[in-house]
Write a structure and sequence with these properties.
There is one protein chain. With 720 residues, the protein is mainly beta.
């Protein structure tokens, strides 16, 4: 978001800030120019501006020479952010992972005016700084190191600790494992607009029990790796919001109503001014949401909007930022309280206005173009497997489709802040990804439009709908074998997930790919397919998505099985060769299908499954299944481990012993149950591999080989 003004022999970059909070999150958002014609990107050791319509046209803004320390090598730019006064750039380099993403690293500031390069926090350990960002007045940089917040004066070079009580488990300015995993919370502090204060989260995880992962391969003596991990029924970490005065380093704790342990605060920002905070608070069950305004000086709060659900309420989608209109008098909010996920505007007194009045879901908010009078959002009213751009007036009304009718499939957009241009991506099951630059709202193509996937042959995916005996209409896709003969009977391999976190039946590039299978299922003679039932996050309305409440392991399993029963009636399906596989929640679904419906499925490959729902983290599992003790029976009765005694078919269990997300102890509990009931199966444990089972030489190939060998031996391919 910059405007290029030529000054002397280099370009000075004038920004409208995208919010430096965004910089510290994993990844790097697109920097659009004010006129919507250019973007800026990191290119190795330099930062360049790129013509949005002709990306071969580049101009170096910050050169390698500018980013080369004295007697050193050029910095490798991972992320960058410019100060609001456009005179300084903050460089993130030498990054390291914290769980999923590389949120630790080193930071440097290049001053465009003085042409000087300076390291921030150089007295701290290498690659230990997190979420560094300029103050709005560009005079300071704040960051987190070892769970304390620091501020460094860019003129004097002096560093001040704003918090000093941070420890391994008392966490200032960032989050514990479960907040990061389930609420997408990472960057945990916000500069006030006047640069005088910082609002921050403090997470007290000192009472959270450790899950001890056992490393048995990296030394002669095994050692444990502790992960603070609150399972179902365990209290969450306590959560507080503090505002620290940058001058005095004195924190005032905000009097947020409710118990700090039995409530979550997944979202918090300054309310478009230096006097108020706005935050979202969820109760422990996550079915009550409150939007709270906090008067910082008076330390008083006011609930301006609340919502109560029978099932659950999601945290605001964006982890950072708040979408304000009318100069901060109103904000944009998505809720599905009326049965559809609709877009509303809400003022600071809680008065709400429905903006999307059509009876269909807004999948996601893309851009609020207040000047142009449009709100852009994704939707797909008539086909839940696809995704299109729509717009609606900022004052509300009926939505208008923006994506072209002839491109049927899945669209994605990165829209310039002024709403004039967008990077547009399109793909479908039969169209490789296309990328172009379009004018909005006309969707006129300005450049691009070519596939970037070469001549790769896509599988021949057929979409279908099937209605179960329960009256549930489900979307599905399948890939039939090459040289398909309808007079023969073929084995079917079902790919499943089945939980609220993801869809499997989508019309986009990659659908129908074999994934783990070594070779081609289509060539070898399998029918590969997926069907999707209730609980999946498809744009089919609230009832479709939230009917799974209390029912993970129940209705999602029944929907899959009842759809399979209908499919088994097809003349070309061999009912004696039916396999199913999935990963994570899909691994759990695989186990439940194999064990609850052994009359349908003979073979299953379960990878990284939640075998016992009581083992999983409280934020995710309690959101969808309830609280202990009153709801314990839902967890117990619907877990795969409860059905282990019913196993009849062929089962391959796969799990990484270093999985910090779905822990290996669940797999061993399942093993114990299968042994108890004399059920034979195969087990593949990958030492020290995480949930992705991707680390280590040869791992991916070995997993593929294991998967393929087991499938071919127990569900042989080919028509008969």
């Amino acid at each position: 978001m910059f405007k290029l003004i030529k000054q002397k022999t280099f370009f000075l970059i004038l920004f409208i800030s995208i919010g430096t909070n965004c910089f510290a999150q994993w990844g790097q958002g697109t920097y659009w120019t004010l006129d919507g014609n250019q973007i800026m990107e990191a290119d190795g050791g330099k930062i360049v501006s790129i013509d949005a319509q002709d990306q071969t046209k580049q101009t170096t803004i910050i050169s390698e020479a500018m980013l080369t320390p004295a007697n050193g090598k050029p910095l490798e730019v991972v992320r960058f952010a410019f100060s609001d006064d456009n005179k300084k750039v903050l460089i993130n380099t030498n990054t390291k992972k914290v769980w999923r993403y590389d949120t630790k690293g080193d930071f440097w500031v290049y001053d465009i005016s003085t042409k000087t390069l300076k390291q921030i926090g150089k007295d701290k350990p290498v690659s230990s700084l997190m979420f560094a960002k300029f103050s709005p007045d560009a005079k300071k940089v704040a960051y987190v190191s070892k769970h304390n917040i620091y501020v460094e004066d860019l003129v004097t070079g002096q560093t001040k600790a704003l918090t000093t009580d941070g420890t391994l488990r008392l966490i200032n300015g960032t989050f514990d494992w479960v907040y990061e995993e389930e609420f997408d919370c990472r960057d945990g502090f916000r500069w006030s607009p006047d640069s005088k204060s910082i609002a921050y989260w403090q997470i007290d995880a000192r009472k959270i029990k450790n899950y001890l992962m056992l490393n048995t391969t990296d030394s002669l003596y095994p050692f444990t790796i502790p992960v603070e991990y609150p399972v179902v029924g365990e209290d969450p970490s306590a959560c507080k919001i503090g505002v620290v005065n940058v001058e005095t380093a004195s924190t005032t704790w905000m009097n947020v109503p409710g118990d700090s342990v039995q409530h979550y605060i997944p979202r918090m920002e300054w309310a478009n001014n230096a006097n108020q905070l706005i935050l979202q608070q969820l109760n422990r069950r996550q079915n009550e949401s409150k939007i709270i305004l906090v008067n910082v000086a008076a330390n008083t709060t006011k609930v301006i909007y609340s919502e109560v659900e029978k099932a659950w309420i999601d945290a605001k989608a964006e982890a950072t930022g708040w979408t304000w209109i009318e100069g901060g008098k109103k904000f944009i909010w998505l809720t599905e309280k009326d049965g559809w996920r609709h877009i509303y505007s809400i003022d600071l007194n809680g008065k709400e206005t429905l903006l999307t009045k059509d009876p269909f879901d807004a999948i996601s908010l893309e851009l609020v173009d207040e000047k142009g009078g449009n709100i852009y959002f994704m939707a797909s009213p008539y086909n839940a497997t696809q995704k299109y751009l729509y717009r609606v007036s900022i004052t509300g009304g009926n939505a208008v489709k923006v994506s072209p009718d002839e491109q049927k499939g899945t669209h994605g957009y990165d829209i310039s802040p002024n709403g004039k241009l967008a990077f547009h991506n399109f793909s479908s099951s039969y169209v490789s990804p296309l990328r172009d630059v379009v004018e909005l709202p006309t969707h006129k193509i300005l450049s691009g439009g070519k596939s970037n996937r070469g001549n790769f042959k896509l599988p021949d995916v057929e979409f279908f709908k099937i209605t179960t005996k329960d009256g549930i209409e489900m979307d599905g896709w399948m890939v039939k074998p090459d040289n398909f003969d309808p007079k023969k009977k073929y084995p079917v391999v079902f790919y499943v997930y089945g939980e609220p976190a993801s869809q499997t039946v989508v019309d986009r590039y990659g659908t129908g790919f074999n994934r783990l299978y070594a070779g081609s299922m289509q060539k070898d003679g399998y029918i590969y397919m997926s069907v999707e039932g209730r609980g999946a996050p498809a744009p089919k309305g609230r009832e479709w998505r939230k009917s799974i409440y209390h029912n993970i392991g129940d209705i999602n399993i029944r929907d899959q099985a009842m759809a399979a029963k209908e499919i088994l009636k097809w003349d070309y399906v061999d009912k004696d060769r039916i396999a199913v596989w999935g990963w994570s929640g899909g691994g759990s679904t695989t186990l439940n299908l194999l064990m609850q419906y052994p009359d349908i499925y003979q073979t299953g490959i379960s990878i990284a499954a939640v075998d016992n729902q009581l083992n999983y983290d409280n934020i995710y599992q309690e959101r969808y299944m309830g609280l202990l003790p009153e709801d314990k029976h839902y967890f117990v009765d619907n877990s795969p481990i409860a059905h282990a005694k019913n196993l009849e078919g062929n089962l391959l269990l796969v799990h990484g012993t270093g999985d910090d997300n779905v822990h290996y102890n669940g797999a061993e509990q399942m093993v114990n149950e299968l042994v108890k009931y004399n059920k034979t199966f195969q087990l593949m444990s990958y030492p020290n591999r995480s949930h992705s089972i991707s680390e280590g030489a040869g791992t991916t190939k070995h997993l593929s080989s294991t998967y393929t060998k087991f499938l071919k031996e127990n569900c042989p391919p080919g028509g008969r």
